């Protein structure tokens, strides 16, 4: 048995060193650091932590959103350079702004709940819709990722990293995104 975390690379080459391995337990939700095809061929069982820190990740997401909306990073950089002018540091309110949540899984749900507390409008994009949740939390789904990105004020990406989501938001998407006008 191996107990690993997200920084453990369990590629075929590494797995070759464990001839009698039967179980890999990763102390993370994600398992993209494990060669699943190779494990299946070797009959190695994989276990993960399916629910882990959803609220922590959502709260961190909002701390970053608040930092950007209030120019905390710019203030910090200025202060560290002994530059104390406040011009260009005016931020913007989150109330009334549109937050697009791409991926309404466990983390995305928490992000939506927090955003509602700030009075934000939510538009969500997800392969699997939960219409009852949308009604309860008062948000809308869209099927058009391109339109969502074009009209959004803030985008939160809460999807697992895999072949389908890798580069989901790429340079072409950035070119189509609404330019900040706050």
What is the residue-mean pLDDT, rounded to a whole number? 91
What name does CATH use for the topology of the largest domain? Rossmann fold
Distance between the termini: 53 Å
The order of strands across the largest sheet is: 6-5-4-7
CATH architecture of the largest domain: 3-Layer(aba) Sandwich
**Order of secondary-structure elements:** EHEHEHHEHEHEHEH
Continuous helix count: 8
Radius of gyration: 20 Å
Approximate helicity band: 25-40%
Instruction: Characterize the largest beta sheet: strand count, sense, and whether it forms a barrel.
Output: 4 strands, parallel
Give the number of domains: 2
According to CATH, the homologous superfamily of the largest domain is: NAD(P)-binding Rossmann-like Domain
Beta strand %: 5-15%
- The number of distinct β-strands equals 7
The CATH C-level name of the largest domain is Alpha Beta
The shape is: globular
List low-pLDDT spans. none
Outline the structure in words.
The strands form two sheets. The protein has a four-stranded parallel β-sheet with strand order 6-5-4-7, sandwiched between helices. With about 180 residues, it is an alpha/beta fold. The model has no long low-confidence stretch (mean pLDDT about 90). Helix 3 (about 55-70) crosses helix 5 (about 105-115). It is built from eight helices and seven strands. It starts with a strand and ends in a 6-residue tail after the last helix. Strand 2, helix 2 (about 35-40) and strand 3 form a beta-alpha-beta unit. The protein folds into two domains: about 1-45, 3-Layer(aba) Sandwich (Rossmann fold), CATH 3.40.50; about 55-175, NAD(P)-binding Rossmann-like Domain (Rossmann fold), CATH 3.40.50.720.
């Amino acid at each position: 048995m191996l107990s690993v975390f997200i920084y453990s690379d369990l590629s075929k080459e590494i797995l070759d060193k464990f001839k009698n391995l039967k179980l890999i337990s990763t102390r993370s939700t994600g398992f993209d650091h494990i060669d699943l095809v190779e494990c299946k061929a070797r009959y190695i069982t994989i276990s993960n932590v399916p629910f882990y820190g959803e609220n922590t990740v959502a709260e961190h997401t909002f701390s970053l959103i608040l930092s950007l909306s209030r120019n905390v990073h710019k203030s910090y950089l200025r202060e560290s350079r002994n530059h104390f002018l406040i011009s260009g540091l005016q931020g913007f309110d989150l109330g009334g702004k549109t937050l697009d949540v791409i991926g309404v899984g466990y983390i995305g749900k928490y992000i939506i709940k927090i955003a509602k507390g700030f009075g934000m409008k939510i538009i969500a994009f997800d392969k699997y819709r939960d219409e009852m949740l949308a009604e309860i939390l008062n948000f809308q789904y869209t099927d058009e990722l391109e339109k969502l990105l074009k009209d959004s004020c803030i985008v939160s990406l809460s999807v697992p990293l895999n072949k389908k989501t890798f580069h989901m938001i790429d340079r072409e998407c950035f070119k189509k995104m609404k330019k900040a006008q706050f």
